[in-house]
Write a structure and sequence with these properties.
There is one protein chain. The chain has 8 helices and 20 strands. The longest helix is centred in the last third of the chain and has 17 residues. The chain is globular and about 60 Å long.
Length: 397
């Protein structure tokens, strides 16, 4: 089982965070409110309307000044309390008839992960359709919906949709729309040149992670939707952590079982503070198994990431660093169990944080990139006994 670790110092066994570059964009230091609200000579204001026509000839208008980021230093929350999570996928009808009715187009992006569904409006799903969405996301791990009106909904309705899948997480360091702390915003403003800092000290902007794995109960079924995107670039990579586990030899898989690692949010919070950002809740460290089991599919997945994982419990520093580096490299180099989502207006991506990792791509300059995320928490990560299944890597689901 996982457990929360008491924080005695911002340093965790000498292992420093590897992914702090993400915080370059999320602080108020890089936010130009006038440019976002009124626009500039080069860039339109954030409240501009966009028209999107789907193959069904439906038209949606996107206006989102209500999604502009705010940072309230007086906003504070108590520590998160444990809760019982029930996965909606357990109640799903496997026919998927409420989510994928006859005539719906479904395109599979890779054999084991990723589907694009066209002709369905998420905002119109009934509870059966939402249950099936949870199941499909557990099985396909990343599900992309195009031409959605989700961003055009009142924020209260979007929050209600997300809360169906679990208690919504309030991220302690992120900006949010004013009055809606449950909505996590990823925002790079028009004309923001701070993105150039990403590549000043590194050769790549990629940083694989799963969201807030430092929490005792990290997220499960997660909804992310686009508000504004560069003309090109700013895509998101996803990696299949089940397939990453399956590709390992049975003897290596067996060695990983029983190992636990410390995940820390301390360094991320300290980075935010240094940039003038916010910290709504004291950061925590948690102990999670390196191999976790999905409660709906029973699949086993690697559960480490360089953004939050610090060290392996019971290992010396050199031993821990060596094994974690192997796992990080294995995940990063596994292009044959990764996929790339290109954002376009009206895109909503539903993904399962328990069995995937992801990374934004910072390959654009000056244009606005603005997304919202609803992050329902799930069960405490747990593992089930090792079973030698050498053919699992080629079977898929």
């Amino acid at each position: 089982m996982s457990s929360r670790i008491a924080i005695t110092s911002p340093k965790t066994n000498g292992v420093k965070s590897r992914g702090n570059f993400k915080e370059i964009f999320s602080g108020p230091h890089a936010y130009n409110q006038i440019a976002e609200e009124q626009g500039t000579e080069e860039y339109a204001k954030a409240s501009v309307s966009f028209l999107i026509r789907s193959r069904l000839l439906l038209t949606f208008s996107f206006q989102y000044p209500n999604y502009l980021p705010t940072w309230d230093h007086s906003e504070k929350y108590p520590p998160l309390e444990p809760f019982d999570h029930y996965d909606r996928g357990l109640d799903a009808d496997r026919s998927f008839r409420d989510l994928i009715p006859s005539g719906t187009k479904v395109e599979e992006l890779t054999p084991t992960m990723g589907s694009i569904i066209s002709g369905v409006q998420l905002s119109s799903l009934n509870s059966s359709g939402k249950n099936q969405l949870a199941l499909l996301t557990a099985e396909r791990k990343v599900v992309v919906f195009r031409a959605q009106n989700f961003a055009d909904l009142p924020i209260e309705e979007a929050i209600k949709f997300g809360a169906y899948f679990g208690r919504l997480h309030i991220m302690n360091i992120s900006p949010c729309p004013k009055g809606y702390p449950e909505v996590h915003l990823v925002h790079v403003g028009a004309g923001d040149t701070s993105v150039r800092k990403v590549l000043e000290g590194r050769t790549s902007s990629v940083v694989w992670h799963s969201d807030v794995t430092n929490e005792e109960q990290p997220p499960g079924t997660t909804i992310m939707y686009i508000l504004d995107t560069p003309d090109t670039g700013g895509d998101t990579l996803f990696v299949d952590m089940v397939e990453a586990y399956n590709r390992l030899s049975p003897s290596f898989q067996q060695r990983l079982h029983g190992l636990k690692a410390i995940h820390s949010g301390v360094e991320q919070a300290e980075s935010q503070k240094s940039l003038g950002g916010i910290c709504k809740r004291d950061p925590v460290l948690s102990e999670h198994p390196i191999v976790r089991t999905h409660p709906v599919t029973g699949e086993k997945a690697l559960y480490v990431n360089a953004q939050y994982t610090r060290h392996i419990v019971g290992y010396k520093k050199e031993e821990s660093d060596a094994l974690l580096k192997f796992l990080y490299d294995h995940i990063a180099f596994g292009a044959d169990f990764q996929l790339r989502v290109k954002w376009e207006k009206g895109t909503v991506v539903v993904f399962d944080n328990r069995v995937t990792g992801h990374s934004p791509l910072v390959d654009f300059q000056g244009q606005r990139r603005h997304l919202a995320r609803l992050t329902p928490q799930a069960e405490r990560p747990y593992e089930t006994p090792f079973i030698d299944e050498p053919l699992a890597a080629t079977n898929g689901k």
